[in-house]
Fold these 2 entries.
Entry 1:
Amino acid sequence: IAPAILAGLIISAVACQAGQKVSDDAAKPKGLWLLPRKDPGNTARADCPGNMKSAPRVVWSYGHDSKSYSFVRPVRIGADTAYLVRHLNGIQAVLPNGHILWEQPAMGASDVVDLLATARTDAPVILVTLGQYGLAMLDAVDGKMLWSWAAPAGCKLGDFRLLKRDRNAYLVVFPVNSTRGLAFEYSPSQRRMLPLWECDYTGKYWANFGPHLVLADMDRDGLEEIVLAGKPGYLGVLDLRTGAVKFDYKNTHSSLAE
C-alpha cells in the first residue's frame, strides 16, 4: 500500500474512533446538581444541569441564613413594640434591639394569620398556621399555646378564612381530602376558638379537588356568607353561622363540569 494511502487510512481510523468517543460521551447521563427544595410541596425546585462526576463543594452562597427570619409582623406587647418572627420551624417575639421576649422553637409554625383582640389592648393572641396540617393560637405576652386544631387523618389544612368583627372573629375551614367543613367562633374572654358548627357536604363536590371559598354578603342582609366552589362545577352559598346551604348550583354538563 502506498504511504499516502496508508496515512489516509490511519487518519480515517483515528477520526472514526474520536467520533465514536464523542458519541459515547453524549449518550452518558449528565450530572445533576440537586438544589434544596424551596417549599414542602416541592413546587419550585430548580436543579442545575451539568456534567459533574462528584458532588459540588459550596464556596460561597447567597440567601438563607440559619439566623435569619422568614417573616416579620409587628405586635404591641405591654409597653413594647415587638415583632413576631418565624425562625426555622418555630416562632419568636423579638424586640427591635434583638432581645427575644419568648420563643416556641419547635412548634412548626409556618405563618402568622392575624392578631386577635382580648380584653387587654396590649395582650393580643396570635393565630398561626402549623404547616399544612393545622392551626394554633398563642398568647402574645409569653408565647403560651392557648388553642390548636389539627386536620383529620389523611387530610390537609386546605382553604380557610378568618372574619374579624370588632373583638369577635369567625374561622371557617374546609380541609383537603374531605367533604366536611367546620367553623369556630373566637371568644375574647376565653382567648380561644370555640366550635360553632361542623357539616358534611357529601355529594356536593369531590373531596380531593378543593374546595375553595371566599366570604361575601350574597343576599344583601349585611352579613357575610361562605361562597364555596368545588369540582365538578359546584357553587354553594352557606350560612356562616350554621353551615346550612342557603342556595347552590351544580353543573351536570360533563364537559363544563370538568
Note: The CA atoms of residues 165 and 186 lie 10 Å apart.
Entry 2:
Amino acid sequence: EPLFRDMDRIRSRTLNEVKFELIRVECDDIKRSLIQKANAIATALMELLASQLTEETMRVAEQYQQINNRIRVQPGTPEELMELKQIVDGVPERLNSLWETFEHITEGNDLLIKYRFITDNSDFESYWSTMKWPKEINDELANWENNYSTFRSEFQNKLSVCVESLSLNIVKLQDRVDKLADKSESSPPHDTYNEIRSIEDSIKDYQKEIQLYNSHEALFNKPQTQWSHIKDIKAAFEPHRDLWEVTYMSEKLDEYLTG
C-alpha cells in the first residue's frame, strides 16, 4: 500500500516541469520511469503474495479435509469410538485456529482485489471451496452426539452379550477340567493329550478375553466383571496337564524305541 501511495503522489504532486532562472527542466520522463518501476515492483510483490496465498489456501483446505475425513470414520471397536470422541472434542479448537489463518488469507485476497490484481480462476475456486469447509464440518459435528450415543449403546450391548457368553464358556471349561479326574491309565493318551492341549488353549483365550472385556467395561465406566475362578480352574488343570504330557511323551518314546 505505501508503494501505491507513493505512485499516486508522484502522479498528483510532482510537477511536469520545473523552471529555474534561464533553465526549464521537464519531469515527465522521470515521472513515467519512476511510476513504471514502482508498478513493476508492485506487480512482483502481488505475484509473490498471490502465490503464497494459493499455497496457504491449499494447506488450510487439506487440514479441513483431514478433519472431515477423520470425524466421518465409523468406529469398529470401543477403543476406536473413544479415540474418535477425543478427536471430535478437539475439533472446535482446530476450526478456530484454521479460521484465523483463513481470515489472514482473506485479507491478502482483499488487497489483491483492491489493486485490481487478477488471479487464476482456479485460485478463486479454491478460496471459495475452502470457505465452505467449516459449515460442512460443523454440520457433521451437530450429528455427532446422536451418532456417538448410538455407537456407544451398540458396543455396550455387544459387550454384555460377550460377557455372558464368556461366563458360560468358563462354566463349560470347569466341567471339562473336572472330567479329567475321571480319566484312567487305560484312557487313550493321544485323545486325552489333545483334550489337554485344547483346554490349555481355551484358558489362554479366555484370559485374553477377560482382559479385553474388562478394559471395555472401564472405557464405559461400568463395574468390571470378576472371573477370579479362572485362576482356580487353571490351578486345578495344571497337575492333569503335567501328568498327561508325561504319559503321552512316554508312549511316543516307547513307540519310537520299539520301532
Note: The mean pLDDT is 85.
